[in-house]
Amino acid sequence: MIQGIFETHINVSDVEVSARFYERLPGVTLLHQDTQRKSRFYWIGEPGTSMLGIRENYPSPLVQRQHFAFMTGVEQLYTAAAQLAELGITAQNFHGDSVEQAGELIVFPFMPAVSIYFTDPDGHSLELIAMLPHTAQPEQPLMTWDAWEALQQQG
User: How would you list the strands of the sheet with 51-56, edge to edge?
Assistant: First the structure.
């Protein structure tokens, strides 16, 4: 019955500030703006496959930090941190360390996937995550992408 997550909505403190942030991200396209409700809706990636909604002070003026992840490909992840830096956005790895090169990224062996994190103007935790083309190894601890690749070469 369930085939995926189609949309998510987040509460923001200023819809205009958040809109300027999200509308700069590659792969995010404005779908609809509702000025009365101070909200905007965006296609994420291919139109019709995933949607993000932002709404100012809804359901309350208290904005609580939330987390969600955008899918990306492994090849795009190699350049994502640099692309974000060009937009003035600092990328971090899972441990909160600034990302300067792909080798610092952390792999989640139980999936397996690799990702980078960044925050929006309200401090929401955003993630770019790419599935890796290997067999999941849930017995392995989190490790750097370089260590993961070395492990894959061994086995």
Answer: 7-12, 51-56, 39-44, 28-34
Q: Does 115 score more than 60 pLDDT? A: yes
- Provide the β-strand partners of residue 28: 44
Structural contact between residues 116 and 91, judged by C-beta atoms closer than 8 angstroms? yes
- Give the model confidence (pLDDT) of 46-76 as tens digits: 999 999 999 999 989 999 999 999 999 999 9
Instruction: Centre a 10 Å sphere on the Cβ of residue 51 and count the other Cβ atoms it contains.
Output: 18
Q: Is 6 left (phi over 0), alpha (psi -120 to 50) or beta?
A: alpha
pLDDT band for position 99 (cuts 50, 70, 90) = confident
Confidence of residue 155 (pLDDT cuts 50, 70, 90): confident
Calpha distance 125→117 (Å, rounded): 7
Residue written as token pair 């397996």:
112
How far apart CA 113 and CA 110 sit, in angstroms, is 8
